[in-house]
Amino acid sequence: MGKVAVGVAVIGTAAVVAAAALLVRQRMKSSGRWACARALVKEFEEKCGTPDARLKQIADALTVEMHAGLASEGGSKLKMLISYVDNLPTGDEEGIFYALDLGGTNFRVLRVELGGRERGVVHQEFAEASIPPALMSGSSDALFDYIAEKLAAFVADEERIYEQPAGKERELGFTFSFPVMQNSINSGTLIRWTKGFSIDDAVGQDVVVEITKALKRKGVDMRVAALVNDTIGTLAGGRHSNPDVSVAVILGTGSNAAYVERAQAIPKWHGPLPKSGEMAINMEWGNFRSSHLPLTEYDSAMDAESLNPGEQIFEKLISGMYLGEVLRRVLLRLAEETCFFGDEVPAKLKSPFILRTPEMSAMHHDTSADLKVVDDKLRSILEISHTSLKKRRVVVELCDITASRGARLAAAGIFGVLKKTGKDVVKDNGEKTIIAMDGGLFEHYTEYRKCLEKTVFELLGDTTGSSVVFQHYNDGSGIGAALLAASHSLYLEEKL
Ligand code: GLC
């Protein structure tokens, strides 16, 4: 071999050795990164742990808070608000009533024709609109004017087909799904906003006075006959179709529950004892908090940066507004600490609330062999491309951890309510307990729903589990509000 040839061979060997060394380093680096990523996921999973024993402690803590909230105003983080609904619909309700359903970024206007015992809900029409984000933190007048305007358009439109009898005002059931301290069935002041709303001048105001003023400004002649929370509306709507409904749970943007309580078990109720002996209670369980809740650093950071730090802790663990955001935070940490999505942290991943729960749900339910939906969502929402199948599997795993924690905690909440009302044990008379459910999370996130139902049945045990039934009432809260407007109508006497 000539000198040149030897030199080339030496250089060649050196290059091969160097390249091999680089490869080993890179491999070590990437396997080290992978190990770090796995460790991070495992740690998150452990911190989210909800073994049955812990769920039972949470349910017990909830029942203790329920008692405290019923005993005195401000006695607990659970407001246990008195709804003034002491008679749930019987089926006799008749007439045409309106409902306005405001609880999140969308609201609905409904017209419901009730046909009494024989005909039930004869007909319903609705219009839907979204609340422009600017109005969620603007002024009270701006929000209520916007809603009144939509209602005015709805009424104007129907005037072509339906004429309101002369001398009779239209009557409305207003589902306002925020914490309200009621003073009667059709008045109540807003305690505080939740679910991303923050309109300071509305807090402490009577919601019915505000909407009535806005309706006047927009020339709509309408009387608010009932002001209800969506849980109370769902309870009423559910009861109308099934007398065994005694609990209602909303799992949507926010989460909350209502149930029928014995009036005598409400020490803070100083009004006359209702004839029925019962009162529907809006728990506002979103604000529940307990040392048993499995909170992680991601939850604490999300809470600290939220519009309502320290509030709605249970809601922030279980409801649709927050699940996707928790997932985003975990993915961001993976990207920052383990270069999970490449050397650069994807810019979009830093944007709060960019990953919505419906997208998370779509990824969680991806059944394709190569997790195509996960790939699509990562690309379209977060601008992350070229992920390996292995990494996409981690994303699905994180969806599962976050959603299962939420669903199992919501199940503990339901178990707590059943315990408080003595419905966690089988009745000899074969009585059934129907839980009226509504909300987009329950309706669309199948894995969440399945996990929730399975956990409630596990906690109840086989015998009692079989007496509890979950029933989805789509838009039960709107119909429920119309039904309650009917039972509190000004013209009720005339019908008797
Ligand atoms: C939030 C509201 C509550 C409502 C729930 C579901 O928790 O505070 O009033 O019922 O969301 O919409």
Strand order of the largest sheet: 1-11-10-9-12-13
Strand content: 15-25%
The largest sheet is: 6 strands, mixed
Domain count, please report it.
2
The CATH architecture of the largest domain would be: 3-Layer(aba) Sandwich
Task: Enter the CATH topology name of the largest domain.
Answer: Hexokinase, domain 1
In N-to-C order, the SSE pattern is HHEEEHEHEEEHEHEEEHHHHHHEHHHEHH
Task: Calculate Rg over CA atoms.
Answer: 27 Å
Low-confidence runs of at least 5 consecutive residues: 1-11, 20-28
Structural class, by secondary structure, is alpha/beta
Helix segment tally: 17
End-to-end separation in angstroms reads 117 Å
What average pLDDT do the residues reach?
91
Shape category: globular
* Cofactors and ligands: alpha-D-glucopyranose
**Percentage of residues in helical conformation:** 40-55%
CATH class of the largest domain: Alpha Beta
Record field, number of beta strands: 13
